Amino acid sequence: xxxxxxxxxxxxxxxxKRYIIKNCSATFNESIFYTIVGPxxxxxxxxxxxxxxxxxxxxxxxxxNGKKLLKKNIEKYRKNEVAIIFQQYNLIKxxxxxxxxxxxxxxxxxKKLKNxxxxxxxxxxxxxxxxSKADRYASNxxxxxxQRVAIAKAIASNANIIVADEPTGNLDxxxxxxxxxxxxxxxxxxxxxxxxxxxxxxxAKKSDVCYRLVNKKLEEV
Length: 221
Ligand SMILES: Nc1ncnc2c1ncn2[C@@H]1O[C@H](COP(=O)(O)OP(=O)(O)OP(=O)(O)O)[C@@H](O)[C@H]1O
Ligand SMILES: [Mg+2]
Fold this sequence. Notes:
Elements: E1 2-13, E2 16-28, E3 33-37, H1 44-51, E4 59-64, E5 67-68, H2 74-80, E6 82-85, H3 97-107, H4 116-126, H5 131-134, H6 143-156, E7 161-165, H7 173-188, E8 193-197, H8 201-205, E9 209-214, E10 217-220
Parallel strand pairs: 3-8, 3-9, 6-7, 7-8
Antiparallel strand pairs: 1-2, 1-4, 4-5, 9-10
Helix pairs in contact: 3-4, 3-6, 4-6, 6-7
């Protein structure tokens, strides 16, 4: 379970403190697919960066399974517990899709696995990337295929929390639908906590719980 408790995030603008997030609390449970919506510039990327441990709040707490996320354990959190998917730039272009997945498995300490490459192919197959595509350079895959590989990476990392920032922003409607289905599967079948920031109402409607970021805090829609 991921909890945010009364978090604030601000930056200094001359003598003023400008708050982007304020008095913001929410709970994210496992096996649930969440979306976060809100107008451009309201602080969604900022909030998700805090959840992913890429940045730290000025005050308040982020608690993962009862344990506070602190500076001293943030690196471990980023490595083992959370996976991040962006709108683009999720892959190393000069590696094949399967090597992108293998790289993450290696990073996350899966060295002990007997046949890691077979497992990587299998994970890719599960998200709709067949072997012939898995062997292609990431630079030769379409946007939708790249997002599938990004999702495969998130599965391979074994992280229990998956956060994504506008993952379907560059995709057409049918491809977006397919990616949404995969996010849903990540939460419902793999029991992950999945949190997706989106501008898309269609995507938001398909989530189990939708939060709106309004007045610097999250409100359940
Ligand atoms: N360190 C910073 N210094 C100054 N302004 C910042 C800083 N970080 C974020 N901002 C501002 O905070 C606001 C929130 O930005 P953020 O990127 O989180 O919005 P967003 O909801 O993700 O927007 P979009 O939907 O367009 O992606 C913006 O006005 C941004 O310019
Ligand atoms: Mg953003």
